[in-house]
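tool_call: predict_structure(chain=1)
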Amino acid sequence: MSAIPGDVDADRQPPMTVPLRHFLVASAFLPLGAVAGLAAVADFRLGLLSLAHAHLLLVGWVCLTIAGAMTQFVPVWSGVDLHSNRLAALQLPLIAGGLVGFAAGLLAGRLALLPAFGAAMLLGFWVFVYNIGRTLARARPFDTTERHFALALGFFLLATLLGLLLAVGFARPSMLPAPRPAVVGAHATLAVFGAVLTTVLGALYQLGTMFTQTELHGIDVPLGRFEEFGYPAGVLLLAGGRLAESATVARAGGVLVALALVAFAVVLARRLWETQVERTPMLSRYAVVAVTTALWAALALPAWLADPLTRPALLGRPGVSHLLLLGVVGFVVLGTVYHVVPFVVWVHRYSDRLGYEPVPMVDDLYNDRLAATDFWCFLAGTALLVADGLLGLPWLVPAVGGVAVLAGTLLFVVNVAGVVREHAPQSLLAVLLGTWAAVESDGASASPDRD
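tool_result:
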């Protein structure tokens, strides 16, 4: 592909250090989560290890990446200035710092510390929601991507509120609005299917067409319309049914969620099939997403029809949570970051030189061999973990799968960090440790605060 797609307004983007800092910190949480997963496979007895593992990956890696990506691309896609650079800089230490303390409390069994660190994470997410919400409010009328993002922000509010109640509930169970398993089910549903996957779907409508250089047509249109209305309704019904312990309501929501994701998988697969663009790490990973999304939905639907309230069926068919979390969410995040980080760096380092001297393309900034290797490591590891969940294979299989995923994540982190280290106008350390003052003066594209 060319350096920058022609239909986005790169001048609207925030200062370079703001999104890059999110991506780099999120990438650091990825191997930590993978190590925690390996420890769980090895049956380490270390506090609430499984909860720490889930939060390190979903909050630390996925949600911080989402926060950075929305902060970068909502202004670009919507053609409006980011509401506040200061708030965008503030959300990261609140979420990341709160998560570090929260995970440490889980691992050490110090449950009394969880409400304080949970409150820090909630505050960080609510700052993010407010900032992006104010930015989106100036972008009306909304397109499909913006409608998904607005819904995702609402899901972030609900999921984090239930998450804080769960943290408080360790010490004061009376604070919970329903039995703890019911609140856990609603929280996980709103977080994974609401906040995370709604963002993913919205982004892929934009990225899937933009970077395949195709348009939605034919059956894509009714399928997309069904997903756009059926998916959020399904998430609300599934979460509400689980909170109210109503299997009928949750079952109806689960059916809508699964069918809507199948519809979207068909749309994404058709975009990838019709593309004339050369294969990139982004599109290779999106191809995996199209397949794993349809496969996950086919497995989840009968499980949720049978009983959507049981803990093993929280994320679909029991034993295949890795198919959703790694095969769908993981590959979306990996593929997107392989474009976003080089894109941000390219604009700030090379865009002014275009036409005056030879400059690299966006896809020239990362190492192709490392990208291919981390793809196959991550794919093989995910396949082994899913196979173990379905078939109950000997312990060596999930152990090898976990090691392969860890290897892929480390190669990914090295490759992305290398883009910043070798091509960014500022050093890697300056990007990570940049101050608020640096945010205010970072590059000509910085927009004034409105707070």
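agent: Confidence is low (pLDDT under 50) at residues 1-8, 435-451. Proceeding to next step.
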